[in-house]
Amino acid sequence: MRSVELFAGAGGMAIGMAKAGFNHAAVIEWNSDACETFRENQRHHARHVDQWPLHEMDVREFLYDTLRGDIMVVSGGPPCQPFSMGGKHKGYMDERDMFPEAVRAVRELRPKAFIFENVKGLKRETFATYFEYIRLQLSYPGILRKKDEAWRDHCRRLEKQETSSRGRSEYHVVSELLNAADYGVPQKRERVLIVGFRADLGVEWSFPQETHSEDALIKAKWITGDYWERHRVAKKDRPNLEERLGARVEKVRRGDLFGDQVVPWLTVRDAISDLPDPEKFPGNTIPNHRFNPGARSYPGHTGSPLDEPAKTLKAGDHGVPGGENMLARPDGSLRYFTVREAARLQTFPDDYIFRGAWTEAMRQLGNAVPVRLAEVVANSVARTLLSLKSEG
């Protein structure tokens, strides 16, 4: 199944797509550091990345008619700064808004499906109208915006098309806000996923069921103790139940918090406990696992507790915000995550190497789609498309 990856960044979505069985006909990314990360992994033949046809360029200049053969899926994460909670919140007024290019790719390639990812802020009330405009453009990619036409006027034309008797969309589009922790990523990372299937395929599809839960993690810690036993944490070193759960403690003891989910959320400890402490073992030979000094706490930036999923790793508009990218040890001390630890939290393979200084590598990771989340959604889309082939 051939695919095209737009706005590839550090490769989280692209690797997830590859693990789900898609073969990239083109991987497009303009950032030179991210592209050098790709090339580094191609040089040492990292799995899934080795044969990618990389195009280091502005996606607005890419010519899709140069790709021979059918493209099954278009995927990618259009730059999120216009909608990020940490950005300037300009949205459609921001020249970094690349959703028009995502729509162009769908229009020109006519894939059977597409998968796009973006930040939680895209669904903020401030951007509700523009988010609907994005959905309508993806539903009717053939209805182009006219020269000098305001986006709101284009939106009104698309609304009229959808409500008219002839309003048969080209793509059926759904979106959902997913928490990566609910799908086996050791990080609380909420992202908007937008998935569309070509209308003529007659596909019925919904987002995959969550596979992990906070309730199951609470149970593993405070009811069965399996979590602490697995990590060989002595009872005297375990956090106090009342301090951890507060008003929920009685419900936890009664065991009435737990639904159908049986697999616990993964924690920072789950992700990195087998790595040597980079501060104590600075001479370790693990790629990207180097201690970076200077971590400190300040209001709103207190680091990620060891025994919870990490807070959302962030890239930052002017450098990396250190508070979100710190480990908070049980004894109250702090240190920065190494690049390798951050890669684990984003579920990148251990043989995947990041190029650039700590700040640049962490920026790549902060912008990335968790590989595991991308793989889960891509697997579901792939199964649906393969079922069409078998029926045909």
SSE blueprint:
Blueprint: E1 2-6, H1 12-19, E2 23-29, H2 32-43, E3 54-56, E4 73-76, H3 99-109, E5 113-119, H4 128-139, H5 151-163, E6 171-179, E7 190-198, H6 214-222, H7 226-230, H8 241-245, H9 249-254, H10 268-272, E8 304-305, E9 326-328, E10 334-336, H11 339-345, H12 358-366, H13 371-391
Parallel strand pairs: 1-2, 1-4, 2-3, 4-5, 8-9
Antiparallel strand pairs: 5-7, 6-7, 9-10
Helix pairs in contact: 1-13, 4-5
Looking at this structure, what is the CATH superfamily of the largest domain? Vaccinia Virus protein VP39
**Fraction of residues in helix:** 25-40%
Top CATH class of the largest domain: Alpha Beta
N-to-C span: 16 Å
> How many DSSP E strands?
10
Mean of residue pLDDT values: 88
Gross morphology is globular
Computed CA radius of gyration, to the nearest angstrom = 22 Å
Give a short account of the largest sheet.
7 strands, mixed
Structure description:
The protein is α/β, with parallel strands linked by helices and 392 residues long. The chain contains 13 helices and ten strands. Helix 1 (12-19) runs parallel beside helix 13 and helix 4 (128-139) crosses helix 5 (151-163). The longest helix has 21 residues, at 371-391. The model is unreliable at 84-94 (pLDDT under 50).
